[in-house]
Amino acid sequence: MNEIKLTSKKKMRNTLFISFLIIICLIVRIGYIQLIQGKELSKLAYEQQTLDRKINPKRGTIYDATGTNILAVSSTVETVTINPTNIANEDKEKVAIALSNIFELDYDTILKKVKKRSSIETITKKQDKEKTDKLRKWMEENNITSGINIDEDTKRYYPYNNLASQIIGFCGSDNQGLDGIEAKYEEELKGKQGAIQKHTDAKGGEIGEEGENYISAIDGNDLVLTIDLTIQSIVEKYLEEACIDNECTDGGSIVVMNPQNGDILAMANYPSYNLNEPYEPYTDELKETWDSLEQQEKTTKLQAVWRNKAIADTYEPGSVFKLITASAAIEEGIVTDIDKEGQFSCTGGIEVAGVRIKCWRYYRPHGSESLRQGLMNSCNPVFIGLGQQLGVTKYYEYLEKFKLLQKTGIDLPGEAGSIFLAKEKAGPVELATISFGQRFEITPIQLATAVSSIANGGTSVSPRVVKQIINSQTKEVTDIPVKTNGTVISKETSEKVLSMMESVVSEGTGKNAKVAGYRIGGKTGTSEDGVNTNKYVTSFCGVAPIDNPQVVVLVTLYNPTGEGGHQGGGVAAPVGGQIFSEILPYLEVNKTVLEGDDEEIINQVEVPNITGKSIREAEEILKQSNLKIRITNETEELDKENTYIKNQIPQAGIVVNEESEITVEI
To answer: What is the CATH number of the domain that holds 616?
Structure first.
């Protein structure tokens, strides 16, 4: 009997001990779940019980400098999603057929999504309302009231297609900026996502009676650029013509800058691409071979055309750089009288450290020259001599002052820096070649910025592409401040260099840039594109009007191989003249009666309104004003009677020269 009692007590004790251990384990487990895994499990529970459908904000609008012309805008489209668990089993195949037919999608792929045991699946994005309305009608006709969601979304649209493509950039399928302004100002433009939230059970069905919780999206901020639509279109037109006429195998770029505040009025590259179709072939030649190219080759060609040559490609500036040498020499007092005859002498070349460096006209030396004549003749020995008198240390000080040893800081992605030999390694020969613009590399934007310092009276101004940000909620306007970087040269030096630049255009190598009635200064340049490549870069940098500079124009053409040759004066200077002839009247720069201008005065007319007109009507209207039409997206089967104009550049009311082309989009 005692043994039985003892055994019972032992069993009871063991049972209590085991129960106690289980309770301890449970307490430990509960504590672990509550304290260690609590946050994570709460998050998982929220995600399981709450169904979120994202609402994409409208990306901010991008305007040109006038604040009225839209360069990039987000249009309303719609996204279709489904909640598979909320679609009745007997309706799943019917839903899959409807979705695949309406949106032209693969039926098997859609059916898999419809049959999935998940809370939400995306069917299609960025659909026009015309198609989603078909889905709404089908849902109503078939009494499908749950499981299919149609939510508002946005799609980026560029009204002018190729215009300023390398500046504006484009967006990916998720509306994220991938290049240009779109990428650089992503944080300003993108806005903040909203959501539609509702509570669901484990299977995705709705629970509770509170309905959907709508959190509004916050639209992105708008940007106002310094780019002027009219000036940009003029520049692109003449750049394309120049590259085609001169057979520039590597394209070209043009920068138009206001030297007073650093505003980039235009920045063009050729070739360009359609911002609405950034992944498509961009030339007729590529369209013919596109399908046969490997993906890597396609990517390489696309990246090449997306590249903004004006800020990302370096080159030897050639004789345009003599403006920098001349400015430094005058500022240091090496030359006090720019018209002093006989101060310099060209014998066809000059010997430096045992190396004879030729003048470009070595076969017929320039002889006795003043500094003005040396710049007009673009005589290498004159500027080599100035470089020698300045010395390496002083010369590099001026490179620093002109901000040529660093990036300009322009508000665009992908800017490259200059390539100069380190000051400690620059010997007499290197200094000589730098003095006339060779054996180093800079970007076009660096050169345009440096020349702007000369044009505005001697102040270094940073270039900018965005001048205002407009808050999407409050409409408050924030001005981007003009950034100056100190004095480079004195106003007196600036005036002397500008005077010499005017002589270059009126009598020297830049005379092909002359425009009747306007005081224009400039400098031409020709350089080799690399060593022993047999390729050349030809350029012209112009300033106007000389008495109060408002515009700096830098034309850079890469490897012109046409009959016109590759000299800056013959190839690039005429392009500068064409651009000045149209943008100076547009900017309302007053004409000046100049000596030698009486042989040709170009009449000007006001551009009529042809937007909304048929091509045939537009041709007749423009003919009456002695203007021409240029269709950007013309096709072989163009029906002029029934094809209507969507946009025109320049817009109605702008004053242009007679015989000018009015660019239209159909």
So the answer is: 3.30.10.20
Instruction: Tell whether 1 is covered by a domain.
Output: no
pLDDT score recorded for residue 43: 56
From the list 211, 204, 198, the residue with the least C-alpha distance to 52 is: 198
pLDDT tens digit sequence for 484-532: 999 999 999 999 999 999 999 999 999 999 999 999 999 999 998 877 6
Number of neighbouring beta carbons within 10 Å of residue 424 = 7
Residue 101 — φ and ψ, nearest 5°?
-75, -45
The pLDDT tens digits for 231-278 are 999 999 999 999 999 999 999 999 999 999 999 999 999 999 999 999
Tell me the Ramachandran region of residue 318: left when phi exceeds 0, alpha when psi lies from -120 to 50, beta otherwise: left
Mean pLDDT over the full length of the chain: 89
* Catalytic residue status for 345: no
Average pLDDT of the residues in 568-588: 94
Sheet holding 661-665, edge to edge: 628-631, 661-665, 647-649
582 with 615, same domain? no
User: Which residue in 165, 253, 272, 319 is the catalytic one?
Assistant: 319
What's the CATH number where 359 sits?
A: 3.40.710.10
pTM of the model: 0.83
Q: Which two tokens stand for residue 99?
A: 């979705």
Inside any domain, residue 126:
yes
E strand residue ranges, 366-495:
367-369, 459-461, 466-470, 477-479, 484-487
Q: 649 has which bridge partners?
A: 663
How many domains, the chain?
3
Range of the structural domain that residue 478 is part of: 312-586
Q: What is the mean pLDDT of residues 599-627?
A: 83
Of 190, 225, 260, which closes a domain? 225
Report the distance separating Cα 144 and Cα 90, nearest Å: 12
Separation of alpha carbons 56 and 217, rounded Å: 6
User: What is the C-alpha to C-alpha distance for residues 471 and 489, in angstroms, rounded to an integer?
Assistant: 39
240 lies in some domain: no
Are residues 272 and 165 in contact, defined by beta-carbon separation less than 8 angstroms? yes
Q: Among residues 170, 181, 130, 121, which one has the least CA distance to residue 149? A: 121
Task: Indicate the SS3 state at residue 50.
Answer: strand
What is the per-residue DSSP string for 524-568?
EEEEESSSS---EEEEEEEEE-TTS--EEEEEEEE-B-STT-S-H
CA distance 369 to 382: 8
